[in-house]
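Anyone up for a design puzzle?
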């Protein structure tokens, strides 16, 4: 077996590495792998220095220590996934607007997020990422992650069933939030479709198909710019919920 201090540090590294690999603000593909590894090591050393200096794990066999290793990897990945669920509300809102405004056809692979996004989707996601760091929300998220070592110490069991059910419920909540973020622009575009349908019935000679798409794009862009204050307030709410829901998940499974 490894030395006791190294055992503890390795478990902290695994939980931290899983979190960094899954959390949206750290897992971006635009962040170099060397920087991710450096961040994982720095966070792990700080957690060990302030919380685990002098702590000794009970004697462990190789098989039992392997279970500890798997548990910490799963714990870190799940906590990162909780933050990702909250952030996905912004991504889904952008995709809904893109589909309705007609930008989905211009969707391309976004190397930063690792998914295919169109214009509004990239705008929403990049704005949210910037706001995370501008509002210091990343400090709150890291604070909640640090707290997980107090609520869920190394080697302590947790309820997988309760955690999974809570994740599914949270995903449905933030799917509804994604629709709420996108609904102002969606309603305007829906009204545009209704008006164009009435115009086509009134003036049959008018080519609505040729006129409708550019008009929807123009109206969608104009109202998206007009609705920026509403969008920003919605994004602030979603960003603030990241650390809150991470703490709720930690408390739920403890």
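Challenge accepted. My sequence:
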């Amino acid at each position: 077996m490894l030395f006791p201090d190294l055992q503890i540090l390795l478990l902290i590294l695994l939980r931290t590495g899983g979190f960094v690999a899954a959390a949206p603000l750290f897992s971006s593909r635009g962040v170099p792998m060397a920087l991710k590894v450096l961040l994982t090591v720095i966070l792990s050393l700080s957690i060990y220095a302030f919380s685990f200096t002098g702590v000794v794990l009970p004697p462990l066999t190789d098989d039992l220590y392997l279970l500890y290793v798997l548990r910490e990897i799963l714990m870190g990945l799940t906590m990162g996934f909780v933050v990702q669920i909250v952030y996905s509300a912004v991504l889904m809102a952008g995709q809904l607007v893109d589909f309705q405004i007609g930008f989905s056809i211009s969707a391309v692979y976004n190397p930063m997020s690792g998914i295919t996004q169109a214009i509004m989707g990239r705008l929403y996601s990049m704005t949210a990422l910037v706001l995370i760091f501008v509002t210091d929300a990343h400090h709150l998220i890291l604070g909640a992650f640090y707290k997980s070592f107090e609520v869920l110490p190394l080697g302590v069991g947790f309820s997988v069933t309760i955690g999974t059910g809570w994740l599914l419920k949270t995903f449905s909540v933030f799917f509804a939030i994604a629709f709420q973020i996108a609904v102002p622009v969606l309603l305007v575009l829906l009204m545009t479709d209704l008006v164009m349908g009435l115009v086509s019935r009134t003036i049959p000679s008018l080519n609505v198909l040729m006129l409708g798409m550019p008009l929807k794009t123009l109206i969608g862009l104009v109202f998206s710019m007009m609705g920026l204050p509403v969008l920003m307030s919605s994004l602030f709410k979603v960003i603030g919920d990241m650390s809150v829901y991470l703490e709720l998940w930690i408390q739920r499974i403890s």
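A detail worth pointing out: The CA atoms of residues 9 and 49 lie 10 Å apart.
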